Amino acid sequence: MKKDFTPHGFTCGHRILRHMCRPDRHNELEVNFLEQGNMTYRIGGQTFTIPENRLFVLWAGIPHQLIEFESNSRVYWLTVPFTWFLQWQLPEQFVQRILGGQVITESDPGYFESDLTLFQQWYEDISQNSPGLQNSALLEVEARLGRLAHSWSQERTIPIRKRINGHAKGNRRIKKVEQMATFIAQNYTQPIKVGDISALVNLHPDYAMSIFKKAFGRSLANCLNQHRVSHAQRLLTDTNAKIIDIAFDSGFGSISRFNTVFKSICGITPRQYRSKFRSNLF
Fold first, then answer.
1. Domain tally for the chain?
2. Alpha helix stretches (DSSP H) within the chain
3. What percent of the chain has pLDDT over 70?
4. Residues 75, 35: contact at Cβ < 8 Å?
5. 126-182 pLDDT tens trace
6. Residue 31: how many CB atoms within 10 A of its CB?
7. Neighbour tally for 129: CB within 10 Å
8. Rounded average pLDDT over 9-35
9. N or C, which terminus of the chain has less Cβ within 10 Å?
10. Which residues pair with 104 in a beta bridge?
């Protein structure tokens, strides 16, 4: 049985898994807790197995799919609007890994009981028509991710909120960065360029690139290429499509550009990647 609630874009639900999910993509952070069973996700061409009793986090802006799970696996899920995620004081490396398509999993099984209690409480709070309860839940989600991020990363880094500062002016910049990231996530398979992205938010390309890099620690072009390569990885492992067709379907303008960018990110050629990570479905 599944229930979900959508107060002001902050959603929560609980379900027993009975069938595979189709590839999905939406512009929120997913904060999930696997109460029972094991689950395997595919994001791009990578697979991540989630052990039982663990909290895990992923950015749903990259296409993702549940490809395997134990019978009657039970999971709590929660989504957080992308804008809010950008404004939280989380370490830069942690944010970059999530936006790059990595699933971050709580490594300490000792959190099981407290995380289960938290998700049960968030589930109840978000279902209530009470801004106060919903606000309290959001603050608790932020605090829990802060603990996860700092246990995951040993080095101290500059938080996003400090790198994009200035109250109202800073909020406008955050909004611009969110719009650019969303546009990339929704249009990376099209022949878009940095100039198209900056024009969308009415900013000079140099300034757009500057505030985007301050937020994510990587350039607009790098973010665009990462999305395209992740898309190509999924097609290489899950389909029989020709590599040249995958290159164009992923948004690259030529096979040579595709090969160059793919190898720079993955360390191997698309053909080598397909041979190494080919899905058992074929």
1. 2
2. 82-87, 92-99, 112-127, 131-152, 160-163, 167-187, 194-200, 205-216, 220-238, 243-249, 255-266, 270-277
3. 85
4. yes
5. 888 787 888 899 899 999 999 999 888 743 333 433 444 444 455 677 778 878 887
6. 24
7. 8
8. 76
9. N
10. 57
Q: What kind and span of H or E run contains 4?
A: strand 3-5
- SS3 for 31? strand
Q: Pick the last residue of a domain from 93, 122, 152.
A: 152
* Structure-token match 């590839």, residue found: 23
Q: Same domain for 140 and 209? A: no
* Cβ density class 209-234: b for 16+ within 10 Å, e for less: bebbbbbbbeebebbbbbbbbbbbbb
Quick one: 122 and 179 in the same domain?
Answer: no
* Cα–Cα dist 220/156, whole Å: 24
Structure tokens at 146: 């802060």
pLDDT digits (tens, 9 = 90+) for 60-101: 877 788 888 888 788 998 988 776 787 687 887 788 778 777
